[in-house]
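Worked example 3. Consider a protein that binds glutathione.
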Amino acid sequence: MITLYGFNEAFGLVDASPFVLKVDAYLRMAGLEFERKSAVANLRTAPKGKLPYIIENGQTIADSAFILDYLNAKPGVTMYADLCPEQRAQSYLIAKSLDENLYWCLLYSRWMRDQTWPLTKATFFGSLPFPLNKLVPVVVRRGVRSALLKQGMGRHSDTEIQQILVNTLDSLSILLGSKTYFMNDKPSVLDACVFGFLAEFILADIDNDFNAIARRYENLSAFCRQIHSRFYSHD
Ligand SMILES: N[C@@H](CCC(=O)N[C@@H](CS)C(=O)NCC(=O)O)C(=O)O
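Given these inputs, the predicted complex is written out as structure tokens:
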């Protein structure tokens, strides 16, 4: 049995992290049996200090991309095996763009914008006792701001970060077109990766300018809704 270690349910989704959500979606799409262990405290046992990680038969795999590589290689799993070499190459590069670029737009939209910060603070720190509920959010937010600056996204203006979001969504929307899934007529590894990120903008119970932009894309919204109703409606 596979155990998926993530954070917690948040914003109406099984996890607030797009990296955890993509692994969760993959496991469901591939029909692999798994259990979720969700707690922020999982960060303490995470081999790389980040979530998600999985454990199966005593073997620990950390990092969503390495987890998907591991799952892709399982006998009987077709999420990657059914893709041709060109589709595999495209999937890898698109997924990396989401991991390394779109992720920082999401982080910025949730943690830096005053429009969303009260909700983010209440969601992640609302259950802490006083005075931790006052101190911890300030310290963690400072850490996120520093990470955004070091990565580079945090050096752009709000308008520029929204433009990066639009450029990514325009590209995804064109690639999906009127298809149900990105590659073939059934879910592949790329659909799990895209869903993990798009759901955090489109399905999450957050109303800020970034989420509003994402919800304007009808085909991407339909993609999220369809996957959610097919793989998450029994939760
Ligand atoms: N490359 C990693 C990135 C995972 C990641 O950045 N996770 C974030 C949450 S979205 C995290 O664990 N952050 C906690 C921290 O940095 O302390 C993956 O693909 O799994």
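Take a moment to read the result before moving on. Strands lie at 2-6, 34-38, 53-56, 59-62. The longest strand covers residues 2-6.
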